[in-house]
Amino acid sequence: MTVSPPVYERPPLPRRISMRTIGWIRTNLVPVSMMKRRMSSSTSPLIQEFRQNPGGWRAMEIIYENARPKSLWDWYVLRGLPLSIEARNRRRFFVYTLSTWMKTIPESSPRRMLILGSGPALDVLEAMQTQPGPFDVDAVDLDDGAIVRGREEATRLKLSEQIAYHHGDVRSALRNLGDKTYNLISLIGLAEYLSDEELTDLLQELSEHAAPGCKVITHAYEDTFHSESTLSRMFGIKIHPRTAVHMSRLLNDTGFSVQEIEATPLGIYPMILATPAVQPATKTAPEVVPAERGTTSHVSQR
Ligand SMILES: C[S@@+](CC[C@H](N)C(=O)[O-])C[C@H]1O[C@@H](n2cnc3c(N)ncnc32)[C@H](O)[C@@H]1O
Questions:
Q1: Ligand 1 centroid to 18 CA: how many Å?
Q2: Closest to 46 measured CA to CA, from 90, 11, 84
Q3: Nearest to 116 by CA among 223, 24, 201, 40
């Protein structure tokens, strides 16, 4: 099946400036207690979900679904927050990259995928529907609800033979997967929750599970709209901001070689594709020209 390139949400420049200004005001001038009070009485499903399980997969699904807002606040958190817009853009990039990979990989080649911090992996199921299989997917998530939801959806789509859901921490899950190797590994929506040390350990373990030519899909997190401090003060979420260069170095230091970096329109999630390095990891990270905000640009390719 043909795979169409992603159509991103690209707020025009005046809106990007106002989003940045609002982000600055929210971070520097509005008391947390006031924002918390406002949120406690909000009927927005996204706000309510964030209060119960901040940064969890259900909140992400609400953002992806992007249903008609129920109120002004609901509109703001769904469609006015740069992080929500960029989460949808990131998902579009991921589904497109996955579908394209599935289409181009020769039929005789193995199609083993490891999806870490997968949530219910609805994005992976969506890509699987665009191309003939069979695929062999291992999806790992800490949250039991994500596993249940994913299994239900896989069964409904008749894909349950091709995807196994594993409940647990990614680090212990890797040990349980034995010496299985993968042709594609995703850390989408997970890397920003791990410290450099945790990520380095994980990438080192992953290098043992990467088949030759394996595609690793991950991303950096650049706090271009002052979201990190709000998430931390309001919900106690610890996000680890990391530039594309920083993330590339972590990859290069753990046996991977960065192939491509693509900025999402608001520059929050530079998307990174890497592959196992043929030589021991001695290469330096590519110099990344900061992407012009508001454009999706192909920053570097080797
Ligand atoms: C922001 S959601 C992203 C879900 C999905 N990858 C996406 O992009 O929509 C982060 C997911 O990572 C899971 N997670 C966080 N830390 C984890 C860990 N150490 N091991 C396994 N899963 C983890 C959470 O349970 C959650 O479902």
A1: 30
A2: 84
A3: 201
How much is the average pLDDT of 229-257?
Answer: 89
**Residue 142 in contact with ligand 1 by CB distance below 6 A:** yes
d(CA 275, CA 101): 13
Q: Is the CB of 117 under 6 A from ligand 1?
A: yes
CA 274 to chain centre: 15
Ligand 1 close to Cβ of residue 45 (< 6 A) = no
300, exposed or middle or buried, with CB in 10 Å at 0-12, 13-18, 19+?
A: middle
Ligand 1 neighbour 231 (Cβ under 6 A): no
Q: How far is the CA of 116 from the centre of ligand 1 (A)?
A: 7
Residue range 132-150, pLDDT digits in tens: 889 999 999 999 999 999 9
Amino acid in the structure at residue 126: E
Q: Please give the class, per CATH, of domain 87-286.
A: alpha beta
CA of 140 to the centre of ligand 1 (A): 8
- Tokens matching residue 208: 């043992």
**What are the angstrom distances between the C-alpha of 142 and each of 54, 57, 147, 169, 188?**
14, 10, 9, 5, 14
With a cut of 70, say whether residue 279 has pLDDT above it. no
82 touches ligand 1 (CB under 6 Å): no
Please give the pLDDT value at position 35: 76
Quote the pTM value: 0.88
Domain ranges of the chain: 13-84, 87-286
Among candidate residues 221, 217, 195, 219, the one with its CA nearest the CA of residue 206: 217
pLDDT > 50? residue 291: no
Rounded CA separation 144/186 (Å): 19
| CA distance from start to end of the chain | 27
Ligand 1 contact, 169 CB (< 6 A): yes
